[in-house]
Write a structure and sequence with these properties.
This protein has 217 residues and is α/β, with parallel strands linked by helices. The protein has two domains: 106 residues, Rossmann fold (3-Layer(aba) Sandwich); 103 residues, Rossmann fold (3-Layer(aba) Sandwich). Helix content is 44%, strand content 16%. It contains eight helices and eight strands. A four-stranded parallel sheet has the order 2-1-3-4, sandwiched between helices. α7 links the parallel β7 and β8. α2 packs parallel to α3 and α4 packs across α8. The N and C termini lie close together (10 Å).
C-alpha cells in the first residue's frame, strides 16, 4: 500500500506544515502513509485565476512522476486546481479538497457556508459550486480579507474567521461551515466551539476520503 500524497500547490511551507498537522489524526494503524509535499513551482498563495491556471501542469507532472508509488493524491487548494486534468493524468484516485469538503459538509448539515480568505476568490468558488450542482446547499461565501501570507498572525486570523462564521450562521442561515483555504486548518476546533456549528477542514475531508478509498481498495 503506497502513500497518499497530499500536494500543497503553493510554495509556502507553513501551509504544508499546517496541512500535515491537520491530517495527523488520520494516520491510523495499518493505514496508508500520509505524505504532504510542497509544489516548489507554485506561487506563495493561490489567490487568482492566473495562479490556478499556472499550477495545473506542475501538479499533473508531479502526479505522473509519483504515479507508481502512490495509492492516491490530494490537491490541497480550495480552488481544486487541475483536478479534472490530474484525474486524466494517471490511474490513481485524485481528491480535490473543495469538492471533498462540500460533499462532507452536506452530510453534517442542510446548508454550508464557506469562509474564504479573499473577496476575489468568491466568484471562482461560486462557479465551481454551480459546476458541481451544489448551489441549493450553499448558504453563502464570505471572505476574511487576509492573504495567505497574513494568516501567520493567528490571533488576527481567528478573530476574522470567527466574525465571518457568525455572519454565515446568523445572516445567511448556514448550519455547517467550510474553511475555504488550507491555510486556515489550525482554526477548526476553536471555531467550532466558538460558533456552535460543525466545521469542515477541507484537507482533512479529502484525506479521509482518500484513506477510505485506499483501505477499501
Amino acid at each position: 500500500m503506497g502513500p497518499i500524497v497530499i500536494i500543497n500547490p503553493n510554495s509556502t511551507e507553513s501551509v504544508t506544515h499546517g496541512m500535515d498537522a491537520a491530517v495527523e489524526r488520520l494516520r491510523v494503524p495499518y493505514g496508508p502513509t500520509l505524505c504532504c509535499v510542497t509544489l516548489e513551482e507554485g506561487p506563495p498563495g493561490i489567490e487568482t485565476d492566473e495562479h490556478v491556471a499556472a499550477v495545473v501542469t506542475p501538479i499533473c507532472d508531479l502526479i505522473r512522476a509519483r504515479q507508481d508509488e502512490a495509492s492516491a493524491f490530494v490537491i490541497g487548494c480550495y480552488s481544486d486546481p487541475g483536478l479534472r486534468e490530474a484525474r486524466e493524468a494517471g490511474t490513481r484516485p485524485v481528491f480535490g479538497i473543495a469538492e471533498s469538503a462540500m460533499l462532507t459538509a452536506m452530510t453534517k448539515g442542510s446548508r454550508f457556508g464557506v469562509i474564504s480568505i479573499l473577496e476575489q476568490s468568491i466568484p471562482r468558488h461560486a462557479r465551481y459550486i454551480r459546476e458541481l450542482g451544489f448551489e441549493a446547499r450553499c448558504a453563502g461565501d464570505r471572505a476574511i480579507g487576509l492573504g495567505i501570507n497574513e494568516l501567520a498572525d493567528g490571533e488576527r486570523t481567528f478573530d476574522r474567521v470567527r466574525e465571518v462564521a457568525q455572519r454565515l450562521r446568523d445572516d445567511d442561515g448556514a448550519d455547517v461551515l467550510i474553511l475555504g483555504c488550507a491555510g486556515l486548518a489550525g482554526t477548526r476546533l476553536a471555531l467550532a466551539a466558538a460558533v456552535g456549528l460543525p466545521v469542515v477542514e477541507p484537507t482533512q475531508a479529502a484525506t479521509a476520503l482518500a484513506v477510505g478509498a485506499t483501505l477499501i481498495g
